[in-house]
Amino acid sequence: MDYVVKYQNRLLIERFGDLKGKLCYEGYYGRKKPCEICALGRAIESGRSEVHEVKTKDGRVYEFQFIPFTDASGVTKAVEVTTDIGERKNAEEALRVASDELREVRGELIRAEKLAAIGQLASGVGHELRNPLGAIRNAVFYVRRRIAKSALPATEPKVLEFLDIIDGEVNSANKVINDLLGFSRIAKPTVSSVNIGGIIEDALKHVPMPENVELTRDVDSSLPMVMVDAEQVRQVFVNIILNAVQAMPEDGRLGIIVKSKGEFVEVKFTDTGGGIPESAINKIFDPLFTTKAKGIGLGLPMCKSTIERHGGGIGVESKEGEGTTFTVSLPTQAV
Fold first, then answer.
1. Helix 230-246 crosses helix 299-309 at what angle (to 10 degrees)?
2. What is the largest CA-CA distance in the chain?
3. Whole-angstrom Cα distance, residue 37 to residue 44?
4. Fold adopted by 90-184
5. DSSP H/E element including 200
6. How far apart are CA 62 and CA 30, in angstroms?
């Protein structure tokens, strides 16, 4: 228990020098007093083996195992077994990294297969539903014209009200079909050099901005041109802006900030809506996942697929109750 080294084997002497007769904490750790949490002391006091892991200044990792025993004279001592576990630790870390990468690749593969299957299904279902919806719309149009010339609107006002409901539901169904067909037809982008500010302004024209939503823009005038398909990127921006507006039914603020970042131009859309629940934040780009009462969850997956086809990226940060920020990165050079 006096911390004096009694014996070392050859390998330990080669690694740490001959410490026989010296204090272990001075020789091994360069300390003037025992370690605050001394595994050797614990082992001798408790009579149980203790294990202690240490990383040295040169980056090596050692495992010290202290095994207590009582010699023939009744003095309690400890055998210290020092194992260089650096290679094992490196192998474990490499295995962990490889496992994480494999899990990520597997997730991307599953997502790609899922997207392909949904795309095929979407195309078939979309076409099959368009015909009956078109027939319903024509029938509503005919009925509306016929009853307009009769006394029915005055005696039965509910008839026109229900016709309006049918019209509205047909429009909603058509939007779902358009999303399905749009998702199944994401074409390879035809890129050209485009001013990002112009795409943003064009996108804002396609989204009615409510009076209760304040819009702010911060677009650097010295931004480089981006190499994108303007029509496809505009549709992505429309989708993100529309989501932001819908997230602020009472009032709020939508901020659009555009900055240059290396070989990319970064566009941030920040709203002050209700935010995305933490449980959903990692799923919003998954096909068919949605937090909306109405919708099929293809808008954001379509945005992600479109931006990635351009060699860019899209990400999201959100805090429930405070708002959401979508960040879109677009290349300044063709990929």
1. 150
2. 119
3. 13
4. Helix Hairpins (1.10.287)
5. helix 196-205
6. 16
Residue 98 in 3-state DSSP? helix
Note the helical H segments in 33-191. 39-46, 86-148, 152-155, 157-184
For the chain, helix (H) and strand (E) counts, in that order, are: 9, 10
Q: Which amino acid is at 222?
A: S
Question: Could you tell me how far CA 203 lies from the centroid of its own chain?
Answer: 25
Amino acid at 327: T
Q: Which ranges constitute the DSSP H helices of 187-255?
A: 196-205, 230-246
- Distances in whole angstroms, Cα of residue 4 to Cα of each of 19, 22, 140: 9, 5, 98
The helix or strand, by DSSP H or E, that contains position 268, with its residue range, turns out to be strand 264-271
Asked if residue 108 has pLDDT above 80, the reply is no
Q: What is the pLDDT of residues 220-277, one digit of tens each?
A: 878 999 999 999 999 899 999 999 998 898 889 999 999 998 899 999 999 999 898 8
E strands present in 2-99: 50-55, 61-70, 76-84
The C-alpha angle 119, 266, 190, rounded to 5 degrees, equals: 45
Strand partners, 217: 256
In the chain, what are the domain boundaries? 10-84, 90-184, 192-331
Mean pLDDT calculated for residue range 143-165: 85
| pLDDT of 12 higher than 70 | yes
Look at residue 36 and tell me whether its pLDDT is greater than 80. no
Q: Name residue, tokens 């979309």.
A: 126
Q: Distance of CA 302 to CAs 30, 40, 167, Å?
A: 60, 61, 27
Tokens representing residue 124 in the block: 């078939």
Q: Exposed, middle or buried by CB within 10 Å (0-12, 13-18, 19+), for 14?
A: exposed
Q: What are phi and psi of 33, to 5 degrees?
A: -150, 165
> CATH topology for 192-331?
Heat Shock Protein 90 (3.30.565)
